[in-house]
Fold this protein.
Amino acid sequence: MTKAIFFLAIAGLALAGCGQKADNDDAPDVAMATPHTYSDAEKAAIQATFPAPYNTADLAAGETQFNKCRSCHTIGADKMNMVGPHLYGVFGRKSGTEPGYTFSEAMTAHDVTWDFDTLDAYIAAPQTVVKGTKMSYQGIKDETDRHNLLAYLKLETTPYAPPAATVESASSAN
Ligand code: HEC
């Protein structure tokens, strides 16, 4: 019994040792405990899995772009609808289907699954792509601005799943 506990303690030390190549020893644990606080290494690892050009987009610039949407949309896990539907989990969601929000007939009829391509087209020209949408926003004409925004949106609105292998390889790259 005592031996087993001793062994576990040694194993624990060994594990702690090999996981700590990064400067901030606490970072991985903190990120696990608070789902929406990604470390920079995690953000980079997740973004690397996005298709081009979103894998190299500027997330900070995307966050600034999102200020254009904030007055009408939330993106957090609390799923709060405002003037527009909340955008948590919007990637992979069918247009106009989020329960608890009343969409226009135009958006319900739009019938696409939101992904990088369909969102990019919609955000470029909402009223042209979904004629009759009640989203009274003129759209973002600049392609780079849209790419940055959508990379940020994908990261922030995708429910958190601990990417164990990805985090490991990202931190050993430091
Ligand atoms: C003035 C308010 C307003 C602004 C600003 C706005 N939206 Fe919207 N958005 C809406 C409304 C209202 C709807 C519902 C549209 C409908 O039913 O036709 C909507 C719908 C959407 C949808 C479809 C969601 C779904 O579940 O089908 C997406 C995606 C979206 N907006 C993204 C954005 C993004 C990204 C921005 C910022 C670039 C933005 N919106 C800016 C009001 C707004």
In short: The CA atoms of residues 17 and 125 lie 52 Å apart. The pocket of heme C is lined by residues 68-69, 71-73, 83-85, 90, 93, 95-96, 98, 103-104, 106-107, 114, 119, 123, 133-137, 140 (CB under 6 Å). The two ends are 39 Å apart (CA to CA).
